[in-house]
Amino acid sequence: MILRIPIKNRYIVSILLGFIGLSVILLAEYFFQESFQEWEEKTLDYRFRLRKSVILHPSISTIGIEDSSLQKIGTWPWDRSLHGRMVTLLKSLEVSSINFDIFFTARSSEPGDSQFFEAVRQAGNVILSGPFELIDHPCFTPKEYQAFSRKYSQADAIISDLKTIKVDNTCIDFNALSDQQWNDLGQEAGLELLYHTEFAFTGEEDAARLELLLQTFRYPFSSEHPESLWYANRAYLPLQELIRAAVGFGHVSASPDSDGVFRRVPLVIRVQDQFIPHLAFAAVLHYLQVRPEDVIIYPGKYILLQNAHFPDTTVAKNIRIPVDERLNLRINFFPSWKAHAFADILAAEQNPEIAAFWKHELAGQICTIGYTVSGTGDIGPNPLIPNFPLSFIHAAIMNTILTEQFLYELGWGTNVLITVVLLIFLGAISPKLDPYRFTLFLFLFISIYIGITIYLFIAHRIILNLLIPVLPSLILGYTLITVYWYATEDRERKQLRSAFKTYVSKQMLTKILENPTSLALQGQRKELTIMFSDIRKFSTLSDHIEPEVVHRLLNMYFNRMTKIAFDYDGFVDKFIGDGLLCFFGDPIFHPDHALRAVQAAIDMQKAVRELGPEFQEKLGLDPIVIRIGINTGYVIVGNMGSAERMEYTVLGSDVNLAQRLEASATPGQIMISHKTYEYVKHAIAAREIGEIKVKGFEHPVQVYEVQLPFE
């Protein structure tokens, strides 16, 4: 029997079904927020790519330490005297400010350091930077500490003498934690203490540097609810002499979204009881002559810059920078950006004609000096470019603020209200249409909405959600209405309902109804052997051959390299462009992991030579040459990431050293550290190279070259 419902009730029921669909989507969004947000961000990335261009402010420049500069000046790191000379030169070229996206945490040569310190002091317009580790808030809230005590029942007794209570929160002096207390706690509990400490110092000078930094650079911004900002409890800070010489400081902490894409940065963070601006934001304040006292922060709304003075105007203005609760600015990225080569500018020191040219180019410019060498780890994707030098982010931030091309995100409530209005309209129209016309109407309805979201973004920089909760709610509401009316009125709708139910079940309902597995974030410290390798001049090669050839070349190469690594029980961590990161000794432990790594490296060098004729025959390419760096040391290994995106990987200074050795190796060479050499010298022939300076390490490193038995 077919149930007959009066027309008036049909309208009400259809609208109620639409609201049920919205409720289901909102509930799913609550449980799968990160996944839903990733999908939404992807739709916004496509809207970015539909734009033609953005306005570029004429006073922003980037000075890149790139490949040609390294070829002309020498391998990195350079003596600090070069930076001192550049600062002095840029001051003579009358730049507005000099912003270093380079971390001067360790000393170089004494003469070079002294020259650099004095140049920074004399310039009077240098802004330094440093990376910070950001956390939600310092100390344990009462609820968090109860959970910590329940999970680690022995911890409270071990750290009782390190506890203090601050405004109901429990703070632990992590810096006073002894080795015995750390061992008694265990690594997992110790890392949780580290995450909740007020500030963890990683070196003897850290405390003095932090105190001097906070005394020297004060940014007394006014803020409502400062507790909502990101809090920093670890940092790598500049040398004290540099802190005294500079005029400003900014953090460079920026984390990608869960899908690995960089889209936003926190403009201001908290460090103890003070504010620290982002490097780009500090440079903007300096350029616009905005006093810190004239910066007012409204978390979740905007940052107000009062009395901003643009150099080309005489009238001050106020600028409102839209931000979220964490003071994250959504960056309006440009499609392309080019850096001036460091070496090209430095050539102006001895050449008046070149100096005149660069003065014309750089006078009044906000200059950011950063590392832009191809093939480094300082590259990541943004909505427009998959391999974006991260030092260019500063230019993008400054351009967004100075041109006031802000992206305006409509709030969650606004998007829900729009969805409610659309569902009412959908529910009201559905009783008037048969299933076929109702389906066509839905497609037309969705197409119009998509067109509106694209128009608002391109024409007015307004971000209207495309997916969450609008489209899923419309589709689910449509599904519920269609299924309901078929079940109660029309047998002929059975085939359509079955087909549509199958379609939704595969494409949407499964994702809505499934329960995610919760993964605990943990790691352990182990001695492993780390290997980095990459192909010589691959970036240049890939620019001159077809993408399909690049694809086949890398597949052939990585297939062979991966097989070799597996033959020695190595773990292939990741492919980084043409680079390969492997480690040995985990998850399958072998006491001879260092020897296995070196033997694998020898086989890889041999395999590359054997692949040469195959590349020539199949791809028409000359043989490739690789370089390999290997280091043995204690690293943290385990699952790193979030509940939706986990990666089994390694991290630590010994990982960085392996990468630095690979970068220092010559083509066709295997360079190993002294620690690795001690483990393999009984079985592998190696030649002592001597000590070399590597970036990020204060002391020189003793290295060796593995002798290849087939040469």
From TrEMBL:
| GO biological process assignments | cAMP biosynthetic process; intracellular signal transduction
Q: Which Gene3D superfamilies match?
A: Nucleotide cyclase
Which SUPFAM superfamilies does this UniProt record tie to the protein?
Nucleotide cyclase (SSF55073)
Tell me where in this chain the Guanylate cyclase domain is found.
529-662
Bilayer-spanning residue ranges: 12-32, 406-426, 438-458, 464-487
Supply the InterPro entries for this chain. A/G_cyclase (IPR001054), Adenylyl/Guanylyl_Cyclase_3/4 (IPR050697), CHASE2 (IPR007890), Nucleotide_cyclase (IPR029787)
Cited SMART domains: CHASE2, CYCc
A GO molecular-function descriptor: adenylate cyclase activity
- UniProt keyword annotations, A-Z: Membrane, Transmembrane, Transmembrane helix
Spell out the protein name for this chain: Adenylate/guanylate cyclase
Species name: Vecturithrix granuli
Taxonomic path? Bacteria, Candidatus Moduliflexota, Candidatus Vecturitrichia, Candidatus Vecturitrichales, Candidatus Vecturitrichaceae
